[in-house]
Backbone:
């Protein structure tokens, strides 16, 4: 989804054009969020599970049941129910989890850092490997290196992530013992690190607990590499195609005419231009990792949003499922927006137009 | 190439086709010739054809029944051997037979999702593109909202609401698959809409419905089909993911994702139970990826990437 | 005196499904520090000839020649290091359209100083100063602003001046100008040409001027090569164009509109298949 706004106000002055752009962007965002809410609300209504029973339990008396029915607003028409839902969500109230008996917003805040940490390490691995590999493939187009990158990418596109995760656990944890197993940190260290940011790598490093840091690292490296591999497959493929496009441009010939060394042509001239669309790709694959994390976290028993979501799913905890879905949707939209903003900052052709 | 083939080949490759049929067949033949050059794409085609054949002849290929357990005392978790090519699972069922029968489920998911999602995408996209204005804005906003969720997450939420099961998984995947097709169809429609021949048809008094269904949709079809083919692997992986999470096909159905989930418990000691169905998923989605890549290279050289 | 550039039997071929297609088929010429024009219609191979001199035939094309010498250096055998010393330092090229030939995400200043700093040991400040001088030399009025501008912020004429500045900042011995004014407005063309003309004469360098515009070339160059279908069909002094012998050259010349009347409508060029043989 693109939030880039087209500017129909062609020749109007710069400040008013800027205002128009911002207004339009905000309107688009508001509509998208409204839509997200509507979708989650409607999904919530088609559930065959009786939401009242979920609250009061199936042994409650008729009067308790009726009271809860009215409390939940289920006697009101659908649009009114949606309005109530809207108001609640705006104040961060997604209701209570049937499973943990806590506010869902609280639950999500608790598990979210684990997912962020995993996805961030993953995207770092994917980007640091993916961009050079993609450049290599573009420069060696059609040669062996290019073919190998293509095959590597195809495997990433084709292998089920949960299956690769299981195999990786089997090989690197069970057989070779190179890394720690499922989970985020060993129990021995769990209470020695005070959670400030919730990102255990950062927390343990800041507190100088290097043993704990090593332990966290050996837990995170396998799932993060796996996620990194999948984003690498996408990033390297896009890098290759952007670079091929740039390297065919006339300004590259100009640079060659100038006698600029080849490494500079690739890494400075071409990459600087390819970087503009690449930012979008990296942001999108970061968002994609959130999706991948649902399966990865399940395999690696990683206590993040993905595992929370699947746990809730398996226990028909609908409020939690919809809350989690909504949060991921919002993050997804946010990352899209961020990539558009970065795009604008990176491309002087867009930037100076105001 | 035998001598008898030559005239037919010439007829197909003629510069001056004498009939519309000859032109169309010739075009298809040329596409095929270009496609055949691409070794990887041919491998992909081979894998997909193999999948179809295995699904059709599953009863003949599978040596054992996929659902009925063998002798629980002696035949549980047997490693791969000549008797059991892929070993057996904890219910003493032959994994090879289950994988073979699972191909039917995979093929069904892919086919049904394509049959449901493609028309929705085409309908929404061409309507939005053809009419423009408010129709366009509203339809595309809706499309964007669906695109705002990661696909697997939205499918999860839908399955959670509809209840687990392979039918619901198919519906959920289809609901989350159509938006990209709608976008593509809209973009194509926008380029077609203002051409002179559409104007000519309009002047002849054709209704919008007729123009869209008779002229716009057929022109959008090929690019949408390429896109759907490219998506097939993703659909398979999503279905397998849902199965793995216990939200797709339910036991004892031999769905590959669910089989991996079942084998997960024995992973450390009996690796084959989870590994074998994974190889099947991997092979099939690789096949679709290779096929889709090849098709795109041949039919849409601009979209390479 | 040795020639500045000596080309013998230059051939450039691109592979295709039906086998290699030659776009340049045996071009030979020699030149000193003079102005040589190469004229031909699009597809005649004139631009590819220019690029081949710099060893920049785009892959998968292949350039071969019996002789390709620049000031005594055999360009066919040139190593990467030799090429680096030649390109931008001794031979430069002004490309056709500044919209495409300038890097869109680098400021003019960075692109201009890059040429200088690639070839000279210079500090940033020195390169900057040299760049400003060069922008002055191409008659850009506020060089500081242009140094900090991105290519899309400049008009075509300004962009092409910056291009010329960028290519001449190292004072090369040979400049190849590949249709340097075709992408510009007619009014700007003359100005840019005048600047190019002055800089070339001041520095006494060789110039290969590639264009489809016969009149422009004849007024600007000493000698003209006329190319057709990958071959040189005629070589004449610019002053003697009216006495050209080849029917293609004559045809081209007759197609030009003349101020003092002449034929109307303008005659169209009649091609003869034998020319391409």
Residues:
């Amino acid at each position: 989804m693109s939030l880039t706004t087209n500017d129909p106000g062609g020749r109007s002055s710069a400040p008013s054009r800027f205002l128009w752009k911002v207004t339009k962007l905000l309107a688009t965002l508001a509509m998208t969020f409204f839509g997200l809410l509507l979708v989650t609300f409607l999904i919530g209504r088609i559930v065959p599970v009786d939401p009242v029973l979920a609250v009061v339990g199936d042994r409650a008396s008729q009067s308790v049941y009726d009271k809860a029915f009215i409390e939940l607003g289920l006697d009101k028409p659908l649009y009114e129910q949606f309005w109530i839902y809207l108001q609640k969500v705006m104040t961060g109230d997604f209701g209570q989890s049937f499973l943990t008996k806590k506010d869902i917003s609280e639950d999500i805040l608790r598990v979210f850092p684990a997912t962020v940490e995993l996805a961030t390490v993953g995207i770092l691995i994917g980007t640091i490997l993916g961009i050079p590999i993609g450049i290599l493939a573009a420069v060696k187009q059609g040669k062996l290196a290019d073919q190998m990158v293509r095959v590597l990418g195809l495997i990433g596109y084709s292998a089920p992530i949960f299956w690769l995760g299981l195999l990786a656990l089997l090989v690197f944890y069970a057989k070779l013992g190179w890394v720690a197993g499922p989970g985020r940190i060993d129990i021995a260290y769990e209470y020695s690190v005070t959670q400030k940011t919730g990102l255990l790598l950062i927390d343990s490093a800041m507190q100088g607990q290097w043993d704990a840091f090593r332990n966290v690292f050996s837990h995170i490296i396998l799932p993060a590499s796996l996620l990194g591999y999948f984003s690498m497959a996408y990033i390297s493929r896009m890098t290759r195609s952007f670079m091929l496009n740039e390297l065919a441009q006339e300004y590259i010939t100009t640079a060659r005419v100038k006698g600029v060394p080849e490494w500079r042509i690739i890494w400075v001239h071409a990459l600087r231009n390819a970087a503009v669309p690449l930012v979008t790709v990296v942001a999108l694959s970061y968002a994609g990792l959130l999706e991948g994390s649902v399966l990865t976290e399940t395999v690696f028993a990683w206590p993040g949003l993905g595992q929370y979501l699947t746990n809730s799913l398996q226990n028909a905890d609908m409020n939690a499922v919809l809350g989690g879905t909504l949060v991921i949707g919002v993050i997804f939209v946010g990352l899209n927006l961020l990539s558009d903003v970065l795009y604008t900052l990176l491309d002087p052709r867009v930037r100076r137009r105001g | 190439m035998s001598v008898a083939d030559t005239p037919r080949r010439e007829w197909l490759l003629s510069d001056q086709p004498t009939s519309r049929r000859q032109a169309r067949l010739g075009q298809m033949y040329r596409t095929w010739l270009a496609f055949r050059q691409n070794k990887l794409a041919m491998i992909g085609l081979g894998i997909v054809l193999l999948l179809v054949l295995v699904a059709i002849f599953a009863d003949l290929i599978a040596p054992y029944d996929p659902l009925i357990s063998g002798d629980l005392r002696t035949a549980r978790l047997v490693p791969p051997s000549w008797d059991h090519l892929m070993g057996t699972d904890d219910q003493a069922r032959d994994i090879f037979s289950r994988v073979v029968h699972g191909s039917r489920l995979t093929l069904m998911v892919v086919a049904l999702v394509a049959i449901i999602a493609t028309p929705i995408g085409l309908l929404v996209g061409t309507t939005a593109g053809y009419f423009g204005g408010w129709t366009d804005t509203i339809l595309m906003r809706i499309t964007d909202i669906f695109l705002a969720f990661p696909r697997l997450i939205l499918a999860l939420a839908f399955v959670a609401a509809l209840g687990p099961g392979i039918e619901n998984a198919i519906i959920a995947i289809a609901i989350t698959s159509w938006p990209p097709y709608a976008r593509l169809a809209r973009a194509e429609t926008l380029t077609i809409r203002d051409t002179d021949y559409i104007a000519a048809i309009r002047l002849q008094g054709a209704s919008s419905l007729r123009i869209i269904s008779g002229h716009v949709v057929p022109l959008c079809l090929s690019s949408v089909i390429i896109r759907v083919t490219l998506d097939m692997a993703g659909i398979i992986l999503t279905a397998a993911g849902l199965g793995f999470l216990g939200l797709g096909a339910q036991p004892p159905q031999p769905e590959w994702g669910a089989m991996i989930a079942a084998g997960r418990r024995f992973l450390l000691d009996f690796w084959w139970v989870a590994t074998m169905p994974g190889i099947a998923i991997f092979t099939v989605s690789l096949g679709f990826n290779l096929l889709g890549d090849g098709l795109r290279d041949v039919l849409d050289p601009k979209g390479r990437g | 005196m040795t020639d500045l550039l000596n080309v013998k039997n230059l051939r450039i071929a691109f592979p295709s499904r039906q086998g290699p297609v030659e776009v340049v088929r045996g071009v030979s010429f020699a030149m000193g520090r003079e102005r040589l024009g190469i004229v031909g219609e699009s597809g005649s191979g004139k631009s590819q000839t220019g690029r081949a001199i710099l060893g920049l035939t785009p892959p998968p094309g292949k350039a071969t020649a019996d002789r390709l010498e620049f000031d005594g250096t055999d360009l066919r055998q040139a190593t990467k290091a030799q090429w680096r010393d030649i390109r931008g330092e001794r031979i430069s090229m002004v490309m056709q359209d500044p919209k495409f030939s300038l890097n869109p995400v680098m400021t003019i200043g960075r692109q201009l100083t890059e040429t200088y700093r690639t070839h000279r040991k210079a500090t940033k400040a020195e390169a900057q100063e040299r760049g400003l001088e060069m922008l002055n030399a191409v008659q850009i009025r506020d060089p500081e602003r242009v140094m900090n501008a991105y290519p899309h912020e400049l008009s075509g004429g300004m962009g092409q001046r910056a291009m010329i500045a960028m290519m001449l900042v190292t004072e090369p011995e040979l400049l190849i100008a590949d249709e340097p004014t075709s992408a510009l407005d007619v009014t700007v063309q003359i100005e840019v040409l005048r600047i190019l003309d002055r800089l070339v004469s001041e520095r006494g360098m060789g110039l290969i001027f590639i264009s489809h515009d016969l009149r422009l070339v004849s007024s600007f160059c000493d000698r003209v090569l006329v190319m057709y279908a990958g071959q040189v069909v005629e070589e004449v002094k610019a002053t003697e164009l009216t006495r050209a012998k080849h029917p293609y050259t004559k045809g081209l010349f007759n197609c030009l509109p003349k101020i003092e009347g002449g034929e109307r409508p303008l005659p169209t060029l009649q091609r003869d298949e034998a020319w391409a043989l």
Summary: Chain B is about 75% helix and 0% strand. The two ends of chain B are 35 Å apart (CA to CA).
